[in-house]
Specification:
Length: about 850
C-alpha cells in the first residue's frame, strides 16, 4: 500500500549555475569577488576618512556643478558648494576628502582661502574665521581632472557615451567612493541633502539621486540637468550616470502615495529592461508590507556598461547591462539592490565593520522576494542553497571564520558578509516568529530612518519590541564565528497506556569553529508514525546536552531535528519521497542515491554534517576519522529497500575561488587515497561504535594522489557514515571532548492538546498562516471571504494537524477559517486578518 506524507515536503532543487552568464554574490559578480580573494593587500591600507570627523562638523548640503565627459574625454570638472555647521567651539579648519583630482581654488564668502591637498587625498582648508558651536558657513571647491577608480568596483568610470560613478570600492579604505567625484566626509555616518547640476553634450542626459527639477540648454550646446535629493543620504549612495538614455517611466501606488519609477536605459534596451523588471512592482509592495513605506522620492535603476556588479545608489541604482537581457534570470539582483533602500540607504550601518546590517539583509530581501513572488518552496530552496555555501565556502574565501560583527575591514565584502549574514537573518526569523519578526522590523527601519545604527542597537530594539531577549542570539550568531550543530544522541519511547506514548529525546550540541556553546536555541523536533503522519514540536535547547520530553499519540518510526531547516546550524540535508527505482541526487546531502529495489514508497532523509563525527570507542591502530564531516541516513523504508550511494571526497585546495566542491577533506587526506576507508555505525551517541564498511567501490578518477575521487556504498543502510584514513604518523587536531551520554541539562515537556482543539497563527498574517491541533477524525478546512464565497478547500486526516496555508491568493482583508468533521459539525470558526 502506498503511503502519503501528510506535511508539506519541500524538494530542495539547486539552481544550476551556468557559467555562461555572470554569477551574482549579493552586489557583485563572483568574478569581482575572486579579484579580491587575496585580502592581504587591504591589510596595509590606511583608513583616511574617519567617522570621528563628523563629531566636530556636520555637513548639511551639497550643490555639485559638474561637467561629465565620456569614453573619449574621461574627465569631470566644475565646483561643489559644501554647506556645514560647527558642532564645537573654535573650529578654524575644515578637512574634506577628495581623491586624486586637481583643486583649482577654494572660496568662502566669495573670498579665496588657503588650503593644502595632502597626497591628493585630504583637503585641509583654513577658514576665514573660527566657528563656534552652531555656526554655519559654506565653502566652494573648484576642481577638475581624470577621476579615480579602483579598476574593479568603485570610483568613476567612462565607456563609450557613458560616464558614471560607483559609490563603494572593494580595494580602498574607507570603502566609500564619494570622494572620487566631490569633496565630502566619506564615511557612513555623515548624511546630507544634495543638489546636482550635471552638464553634458546635448544628446546625453544625466540621471541622479532625487527628483529632476529642470534642464538648462547652454549657449555652448550642452545641457545641464538639475536634480534635487531632498532626503539625507551618505556619500556612498550618491551618484550620477550620463549617457544617451531614453528612460521608461512608471508609477507605483505605495503606502505614502504615488512613487515615480525611472528605468534608465538606451532606447535599444528599454524593451528588454521592462521585461526583466516585470516583477519590480510586486517587489515594491512586498518590501513595503514587510519593511514599511518606501521613503525616497523615486525608484530608479540605470542600466550601465559595468559588468562587475551593481550598487544601491538611492533612487538611482547602478545596474549592470548584462542583467537586463529580457529574462528574469537576475531578479535576485533587482531585489537585492532594491532591498538596500530600507537596509543601507534608509537605515545605515555605523561603519564598515557592521556591513552585514545592509548586505545580509539585502540578500535576505532576495529570498523574501522569492517567497512573495513564487511561494514558500522557492524561499526554502534559496535559503538551503545559501546555507550550504555559508558552511562550505565562506571561511575558505574569507581568510578564516569571521563574525558578522565586527567584520575585519580586509574582508568587508567577503562571502561571510553576504551568505552567512542572510543565513543568520533567516534564523532570527525563526527565533522571533513571523508576526513579531516582520512587525518589529518594520517598526525598527522606520524609527531609524535617515540615521545610523549598530548591531547592538538592532539587538536592543528587537528585544524591546518583541519581548524576546535576543542577547544570546546576537552573542552566538552575530558577534561570534562559526556555527552550532545539533543532533539526536538517543531517545526512549514508553507507552502511557492510553494510546499515547512518552518520548524522551537527548539532544547534543557540537561546534563548527564557534568559540562557545549556544544557548536558548528554538529547534523543531518532528516525530512520524509508520504511515508518515507527522507531529512537530518546538523546544529550546542550549549547552552541551538537552533532554526534552513529549507525549505524542503514536510510537514514532522516525524522529529528526529541524526537518524544515529553520535553524542555520552546521547541517545541510535533503528528504524525499521515493516511489521509483533509479537515481535520486541528494545534492544538499552530498550523496547520490541509486535505488535498486523498492516495493513500496520510501521516505528517505540524508544529512551532511559539517562537524567531526563521534570518536571511535575502540581505537583502530593508525586509523583516523574525518574531523570535518559525516553523514546520517534515516527515514521510513520498506523492508526490501536497497540502494547504492556515491560519496565524493575532495581534499583539494585550488587557488581559484569557485563553488567546485573542493576544500571538504583537506585535514583528512594527508596520505595516498589507497589509505581511505568508509566507516559506518548503525546508531549514534553512546549506542554504537564505528566499523569499516568493506562493501564499497573506490573510483580514484585516474590518480591515487590528487586528493579527489568517489566511493560507492553498495548497500545503503540507515545510520551514520564518515571517511577515515590510515596513516601511522598522522596527528589529529585536539577536539573538544564529547561526553559518553547526555545529562538532563534542559527539560521541556510538551503536553498533548485536547482533541478537536485548534489554533490559527499568526493573526494578523502576512504571507502564510498555520492551523495546528489534534483532530479526532478526518475533517475539512474551508476559507471564506466576507461575501460568504468559499475561496479555499482542503481535507485533513485525523491526528495531529500542522497545515500551512499561503495567503497570496486571498489578497488583503479578513477571511473566515472553518474546520468541520465529515458530518459537517463545526469544530472551529476563526476570523484571520491578512495584511
Amino acid at each position: 500500500m502506498q503511503k502519503f506524507l501528510l506535511l508539506t515536503i519541500v524538494f530542495i532543487s539547486f539552481i544550476k549555475i551556468s557559467f555562461a552568464q555572470p554569477v551574482m554574490v549579493g552586489d557583485f559578480t563572483e568574478a569581482t569577488l575572486n579579484a579580491i580573494h587575496n585580502q592581504q593587500q587591504l591589510k596595509s591600507k590606511v583608513f583616511r576618512a574617519t567617522t570621528e570627523r563628523s563629531d566636530t562638523i556636520d555637513l548639511l548640503h551639497f550643490r555639485i556643478h559638474l561637467t561629465v565627459g565620456d569614453g573619449t574625454n574621461q574627465t569631470i570638472g566644475g565646483f561643489a558648494i559644501v554647506e556645514f555647521k560647527s558642532l564645537m567651539n573654535n573650529i578654524n579648519q575644515l578637512f574634506l576628502d577628495l581623491k586624486k583630482l586637481n583643486v583649482d581654488s577654494i572660496t568662502q564668502n566669495n573670498q579665496q582661502i588657503l588650503f593644502t591637498y595632502a597626497d591628493s587625498q585630504i583637503l585641509k582648508i583654513d577658514l576665514l574665521n573660527a566657528l563656534m558651536t552652531g555656526d554655519s558657513s559654506a565653502v566652494t571647491v573648484y576642481y577638475h581632472g581624470h577621476p579615480f577608480n579602483d579598476g574593479t568596483f568603485g570610483g568613476v568610470y567612462f565607456s563609450g557615451d557613458f560616464g558614471f560613478n560607483v559609490g563603494m570600492s572593494l580595494y580602498e579604505l574607507p570603502h566609500n567612493m564619494g570622494r572620487t567625484w566631490h569633496p565630502c566626509f566619506d564615511n557612513f555616518v555623515e548624511r546630507a541633502n544634495y543638489e546636482f547640476y550635471i552638464t553634458a553634450d546635448s544628446n546625453r542626459m544625466a540621471l541622479c539621486n532625487g527628483e529632476l527639477i529642470d534642464t538648462s540648454h547652454n549657449s555652448d550646446g550642452t545641457v545641464t540637468w538639475h536634480w534635487n535629493q531632498n532626503e539625507t543620504i551618505p556619500t556612498f549612495i550618491t551618484g550620477f550616470a550620463v549617457s544617451k538614455f531614453a528612460p521608461v517611466h512608471w508609477t507605483f501606488n505605495g503606502v505614502n502615495g504615488a512613487v515615480p519609477v525611472t528605468l534608465g536605459a538606451l532606447a535599444s534596451d528599454t524593451t528588454n529592461m521592462k521585461n526583466s523588471f516585470v516583477h519590480l512592482q510586486d517587489c515594491f509592495h512586498n518590501f513595503e508590507q514587510h519593511y514599511g513605506p518606501y521613503r525616497f522620492n523615486k525608484i530608479g535603476f540605470n542600466a550601465l556598461p559595468f559588468n562587475w556588479g551593481a550598487m544601491e545608489h538611492a533612487g538611482s541604482i547602478v545596474y549592470p547591462h548584462f542583467a537586463i537581457d529580457g529574462s528574469l534570470n537576475y531578479e535576485d539582483l533587482m531585489a537585492h539592490e532594491f532591498g538596500h533602500h530600507w537596509w543601507g540607504d534608509l537605515a545605515t550601518p555605523h561603519d564598515a565593520t557592521e556591513i552585514w546590517l545592509k548586505e545580509g539583509w539585502a540578500v535576505f530581501s532576495e529570498f523574501l522576494f522569492y517567497e512573495g513572488e513564487y511561494g514558500e518552496s522557492k524561499y526554502k530552496s534559496a535559503i538551503a542553497d545559501n546555507h550550504e555555501i555559508a558552511l562550505h565556502y565562506d571561511h575558505v574565501f574569507d581568510d578564516g571564520y569571521q563574525p558578522l560583527s565586527p567584520m575585519p575591514l580586509y574582508t568587508t565584502f567577503g562571502r561571510t558578509t553576504y551568505t552567512k549574514s542572510a543565513d543568520i537573518v533567516h534564523t532570527l526569523r525563526t527565533y522571533m516568529g513571523d508576526t513579531l519578526f516582520f512587525n518589529c522590523l518594520k517598526s525598527f527601519v522606520q524609527s531609524q530612518a535617515f540615521q545610523n545604527y549598530t548591531s547592538a542597537d538592532l539587538r536592543d530594539y528587537l528585544s524591546t519590541c518583541s519581548g524576546i531577549d535576543l542577547t544570546n542570539f546576537f552573542a552566538d550568531w552575530v558577534f561570534a564565528t562559526g556555527f552550532p550543530h545539533f543532533s539526536i544522541d538517543n531517545y526512549t519511547v514508553t507507552s502511557n497506556g492510553n494510546s499515547t506514548y512518552h518520548v524522551i529525546v537527548s539532544i547534543r550540541q557540537k561546534l563548527d569553529n564557534a568559540p562557545h556553546l549556544y544557548n536558548g536555541v528554538p529547534i523543531e523536533i518532528t516525530f512520524m508514525d509508520s504511515n508518515w503522519q507527522p507531529n512537530t514540536q518546538t523546544v529550546t535547547v542550549g549547552g552541551p546536552c538537552s533532554v526534552a520530553e513529549f507525549d505524542i499519540p503514536f510510537s514514532p518510526s522516525f524522529i529528526c531535528l529541524d526537518l524544515n531547516n529553520k535553524i542555520s546550524d552546521a547541517i545541510t540535508d535533503h528528504f524525499e519521497t521515493i516511489k521509483t527505482i533509479g537515481y535520486h541526487n541528494f545534492i544538499l546531502s552530498k550523496m547520490n542515491v541509486n535505488v535498486v529495489t523498492l516495493s513500496d514508497s520510501a521516505f528517505l532523509r540524508i544529512e551532511h554534517n559539517f562537524v567531526c563525527p563521534d570518536p571511535l570507542k575502540t581505537p583502530i591502530q593508525h586509523l583516523h576519522l574525518s574531523q570535518e564531516r559525516y553523514w546520517k541516513v534515516d527515514g521510513i523504508l520498506p523492508s526490501d529497500f536497497d540502494a547504492k550511494a556515491t560519496l565524493i571526497y575532495n581534499g583539494t585546495n585550488p587557488a581559484a575561488t569557485s563553488y567546485n566542491g573542493a576544500y571538504l577533506d583537506r585535514k583528512l587526506i594527508t596520505n595516498t587515497e589507497d589509505s581511505l576507508v568508509v566507516m559506518y555505525r548503525s546508531g549514534s551517541g553512546s549506542n554504537s561504535d564505528w566499523t569499516i564498511d568493506s562493501d564499497v567501490i573506490f573510483n580514484y578518477q585516474g590518480s591515487h594522489s590528487d586528493d579527489k575521487g568517489s566511493i560507492t556504498i553498495n548497500h545503503l543502510k540507515k545510520g551514520e557514515y564518515t571517511f577515515a584514513i590510515y596513516q601511522s604518523n598522522k596527528i589529529d587536531s585536539v577536539l573538544t571532548p564529547i561526553a559518553d551520554s547526555c545529562q538532563s541539562i534542559v527539560v521541556v515537556k510538551n503536553v498533548l492538546p485536547f482533541k478537536n482543539e485548534f489554533q490559527v497563527y499568526p493573526n494578523p498574517a502576512q504571507n502564510i498562516f498555520t492551523v495546528t491541533g489534534f483532530a479526532e477524525s478526518d475533517c475539512i478546512i474551508e476559507i471564506y471571504n466576507l461575501l460568504g464565497q468559499r475561496i479555499y478547500f482542503s481535507t485533513l486526516s485525523k491526528g495531529f494537524l500542522n497545515k500551512s496555508i499561503e495567503t497570496k491568493i486571498f489578497g488583503e482583508g479578513i477571511v473566515v477559517v472553518k474546520i468541520s468533521d465529515r458530518q459537517k459539525q463545526l469544530l472551529l470558526q476563526k476570523e484571520v486578518i491578512i495584511n
